[in-house]
Amino acid sequence: MEYYPSLLTFHIVFAGLWLIYFVAERILKSQITNASNVELKNQAILLYLKFSNLFGIVGAIGIAITGVLLVWQNNGFGYFDMTNNHWLATKQILFVIILITTFVTIIPTSQEIKARMSSTEDNGVDKQLSKFYKANMVINIIVLVNFIFAITHRFYS
Question: Among residues 56, 62, 86, 60, which one has the least CA distance to residue 8?
Answer without folding.
Answer: 62
